[in-house]
Amino acid sequence: MSDLAQLIENSRANQAIAHKLFTIETEILSCSSSKELLQTLLKLIKEQFSLTHVHLLLVEPTPISYMLSPVTQTQWHQENTRKISADRLALFHNKDNEHETEKPLLTNNLQQFDCILPTNLFEGAQSAAFIPVKLENKLFGSLVLTDKSHERFTPQLGTFHLEQLAVKVSLCLSNVLVREQLEYMANYDRLTGVANRRLMETTFAKELSRQKRYGVPFSILFIDCNKFKQINDTYGHDCGDKVLAYVATQLQELIRETDQCFRYAGDEFVISLASQTKSDALKAAKRFTEFFVNNPMPYGNQKLDITISCGVAESTGKESMDELLKLADEQLYLHKQEKITY
Less Cβ crowding at N or C end of the chain, within 10 Å? Predict the structure, then answer.
């Protein structure tokens, strides 16, 4: 092949790659969440470049840990993402001394990673490319592209297009995460991780509207921690914070997927019970109070007896959110005074 023919062939190959990268960029720019972006990104890269697998290595701890918590982690995350330490991740991306930026790594010697990465990461593959992903100029993860061909990714190949992909992915993910984290901070309590009053108001409005339209029942629980001030005075505010986080975590695990837990104020929590009658709510209140009686909170070398009081209210479709909360708060007071039991 003449030099001119080779140049034309290379130009066409580069144009084809550029078109595929443009397709990927266009799709991920329209993603509204980091979860959607990552799913779309890995799927498109695999399809556009006919790869064996595409995985994402995430540095631990990751800035999107709230998305990958045990509660929210999906089967997709378990299959397509892997955690890795910052030190180990840095082994794959040497810095360009001139520009001080991490470079992609291409290799067809996958055995060298046997002690660093899970072997199933390279199942059916003979070569791999590691593409650095950065957030706020810090190495955040690496896209791992694998192929069954031993010649697909070799150290001798250029990395220009992969570097372009790395920059575009990093920028898109950064933009989505900034927007997503601002939204998260506006709607969730930072100490306990449960939704706050702002999101509670939105949720209640939807549930009350659904009740009026379709006639489905709707109930709530108003909960507070017994002797919380005494715990703070005895063990300190750090312990008090741990108690709030413990109660919130347990409540999150006790409720159904269709229910939601909110931090109302101080040591007070509210739980919305979608499609539940007062009878259902009373059973839930009994189950929750009994759980905390039987499960003291581990604290250092001891266990603290953390108990809760519950107030129950069912909407008739006529009450406002504030009126419904007041009814539940009144029942909470009676329960705390041991004038009612569940």
Answer: N
Calculate the alpha carbon distances from 67 to 7, 62, 193, 256 in Å. 46, 10, 11, 19
339, pLDDT greater than 90:
no
Report the Cα 298 to chain-centroid distance in Å.
Answer: 26
Cα separation of the two ends of the chain: 86
Q: What pLDDT band is residue 170 in, cutting at 50, 70 and 90?
A: confident
Which pairing describes strands 53-59 and 81-84: parallel, antiparallel, or unpaired?
parallel
pLDDT over 90, % of the chain: 49
| Residue in 171, 178, 118 with CA at minimum distance from that of residue 144 | 118
Q: Which residue from 272, 248, 268 is spatially nearest to 260, judged by alpha carbons?
A: 272
Nearest-angstrom CA–CA distance, 229 and 39: 46
| Contact of 172 with 237, CB cutoff 8 Å | no
Cβ-Cβ contacts under 8 Å for 326 (sequence gap 6 or more): none
Kindly provide the b/e burial profile for residues 180-196, where b requires at least 16 CB atoms within 10 angstroms of the residue's own CB.
beeeeeeebbeebbbbb
Give 29-66 pLDDT, tens digit per residue.
Answer: 888 777 788 888 889 989 998 999 998 888 887 665 55
| DSSP-assigned states of every residue in 177-228 | HHHHHHHHHHHB-TTT-SB-HHHHHHHHHHHHHHHHHH---EEEEEEEETTH
CA dist., res. 217 & res. 52, Å (int) = 50
Contacts of 314 (CB under 8 A, 6+ apart): 217, 218, 219, 277, 278, 281
Q: What is the pLDDT of residues 259-273, one digit of tens each?
A: 999 999 999 999 999
Minimum mean pLDDT range among 12-26, 177-191, 233-247, 250-264 = 12-26
Nearest-angstrom CA–CA distance, 94 and 44 = 26
